[in-house]
Design a protein that fits this description.
The protein has one domain. It starts with 7 loop residues before the first helix and ends with a helix. Helix 1 packs antiparallel against helix 2. The protein is rod-shaped and about 90 Å long. It has 3 helices and no strands. By secondary structure, the chain is mainly alpha-helical. Helices cover 81% and strands 0% of the residues.
């Protein structure tokens, strides 16, 4: 699903807009006192920061794995290449 990476900028904007909307909604509610609103806003901000840290760590891990594999053929590819080389070498000796 490599096309999903092109949606990243839109997702970031939507997540930020959603977080701001929730914080604004909490700020306008009268069901909580001022201390309750501040506490809930602090909890939501902590959740948003934690989510960002988790996403960053996950992205860094995926990038590290991808960079280790980039340009390195897997076992099946190496076996196929060795089979082709052996076949060409045998054909060259038969001439």
């Amino acid at each position: 699903m490599p096309q999903a990476r092109y949606l990243f900028p839109a997702r970031v904007l939507l997540e930020a807009a959603g977080a701001l909307a929730v914080l604004g909604l909490v700020g306008t509610t009268n069901a909580l006192g001022p201390a309750g609103r501040r506490g809930l806003q602090l909890a939501l901000a902590t959740l948003a920061i934690g989510w960002g840290v988790w996403q960053t760590a996950r992205g860094a891990s995926q990038a590290r794995l991808a960079s280790e594999q980039r340009g390195t053929p897997n076992t099946a590819t190496m076996r196929e290449l060795s089979r082709r080389v052996a076949a060409q070498a045998a054909a060259g000796r038969a001439r």
